[in-house]
Amino acid sequence: MSMDYIVKVEESRPATDRKPSAGPVFRCIYAKDGLLEVPAGLESPWQFFSDSALKNPNNQMLGRRVTDSKVGPYVWLTYKEVYDSTIRIGSSMRSRGLNPGDCCGIYGSNCPEWITAMEACNSQAIVYVPLYDTLGPNAVEFIINHAEISLAFVQETKLSSILSCPPNCKSYLKTIVSFGNISSKQKKEAEELGVSCFSWEEFSHLGSLVCELPPKQKTDICTIMYTSGTTGEPKGYRRRFIFLFPLAHVYDQIIETYCIYKGASIGFWRGDIRYLIEDAQELKPSIFCGVPRVYDRYILDSVHSKLGNLEKGLPQAQAAPLLDRLVFDKTKQTLGGRVRIMLSGAAPLPRHVEEFLRVTNCSTLSQGYGLTESCGGCLTSIGDVFPMIGTVGVPVTTIEVRLESVPEMGYDALSSVPRGEICLRGNSLFSGYHKREDLTKEVLIDGWFHTGDIGELQPNGAMKIIDRKKNIFKLSQGEYVAVENLENTYTRCPLVSSIWIYGNSFESFLVAVVIPERQALEDWAASHNVTDDFKSLCKNLKARKYILDELNSTGQTHKLRGFEMLKAVHLEPHPFDMERDLITPTFKLKRPQLLKYYKDCIDQLYSEAKGLKA
């Protein structure tokens, strides 16, 4: 293989009785002489912010839109204003009995108070514990007890949720601070349970601008980050320094920390996907970070002339300058007109989406790969290297990577096209799962973190995510099914918005729950003189057969095997959502929850399909 962007630093490892075979160890060419080390004198994340506030006191730091009677412009806090607020809040936390190493919760959606609370914890060497704003009371209660949280900053809309926790968290939770105001009724309710409640303004006045900050070390735990996960209770990831997502997600925290380090301005959107474009046009960002699902909503038709020049190796700015000025600049204005870097992570970006964005946005697009355990990005594509399209690129300069064979899935790390489980080693991995050394030992083996994701090494050294080790099951006749790979294939059908595929070892075929594209289904109905509304269309047997046939046609086009074809589908008019606990905050399917929710539908699909076969 001709590895243009990585270098081999260790040879392959043959299989033994105890371990599967593993491919060579690779580094990015920019780290060929050794992994990047933390700069001397940089001891904690607090320095990123405090140094930046000293250098850029008047820079706009945190902004949000005023939304009283109508939506207004962005209103900003400067670095000096945020720094002063951070010191006061940190001092107030100490006055409530929190000391370095104690845990503080932050519960809510992205906003200036979230960042301020985080930096206040950093200033006092207090461990901050983010809570996804979509977590319900049960998960919040579990995390409060598991991390032993005594104080929590809470968004106003989440107060009722957290106020239901104290009866079962009375050993730990003693103080609640609202991002905004808090009613006298809520205060009284909490105080009866032994919890003191403060508004943001009240709490900030408990502290002082003059307080001695404790020393910090690189070995201190900075944050314990719980993921919502797809199964079971949330897992807490101990994060050490140095390493349109929620700040409870590591991707957003890393990006925002870097922006703060550079003295950049961070504007918060309103949190509603319907108004994302409107907020972007008002903010006019220069960096736009999103997940594939966000970018999916931004797709029109691909433009092939510029794409051809990109495929030939021309850089973004030279591929079609005239078309950029006459045509694509109008598309670029959709996101404010100043975006020069677009980043995508959390799930593979479909190739057609990546092609569209590269062509139309006149900016550099980089797709990356990372996990909470890797403290964000560990692989990333290199800007303007078009052959990396469809991949997550090469290792970052703090990480080494190797593939490990997965024989039961047919993946061989030593084949001519190396495929296997992605394993990581380096300076920016997590230190372990909080209070779960058993789980830590399962995934950290001989210094290598086993990600559970299946990668395919490309000839140029870039990695392509092709499967998930955990999402595999066996059908009754013995064939193994890699379900995520199938879902990625079937979603290439233009009639489908989302799909969940199900099978088990007691059945010989697959079925699926499908979220159809509304317009496509309504167009089919109009052409067949069907007058049903969308909800009724999803129950229409002919509509279901139409979608099923189109899905299997897509499967045949992409050379799926017979047992990978679908035998029946249920059409669901409502997208999978977090409110029903069917997806994670990063839009990954929660398979056990989906099975529980759609069990009756699944049983019916199998009955129908067997009846058709009889």
From TrEMBL:
The keyword Phosphoprotein does not apply. InterPro entries: AMP-binding_CS (IPR020845), AMP-dep_synth/lig_dom (IPR000873), ANL_N_sf (IPR042099), LC-FACS_euk (IPR045311). Keywords: ATP-binding, Fatty acid metabolism, Ligase, Lipid metabolism, Nucleotide-binding. PROSITE patterns: AMP_BINDING (PS00455). GO terms for molecular function: ATP binding; long-chain fatty acid-CoA ligase activity. Coiled coil: none annotated. GO terms for biological process: cutin biosynthetic process; wax biosynthetic process. It catalyses: a long-chain fatty acid + ATP + CoA = a long-chain fatty acyl-CoA + AMP + diphosphate. Pfam families: AMP-binding. GO terms for cellular component: endoplasmic reticulum; membrane. Gene3D superfamilies: N-terminal domain of ligase-like. Pathway: Lipid metabolism; fatty acid metabolism. SUPFAM superfamilies: Acetyl-CoA synthetase-like (SSF56801). Its EC number is 6.2.1.3. The keyword Lipid metabolism applies. Residues 68-236, 240-434 form the AMP-dependent synthetase/ligase domain. Belongs to the ATP-dependent AMP-binding enzyme family. Catalyzes the conversion of long-chain fatty acids to their active form acyl-CoAs for both synthesis of cellular lipids, and degradation via beta-oxidation. This is Long-chain-fatty-acid--CoA ligase.
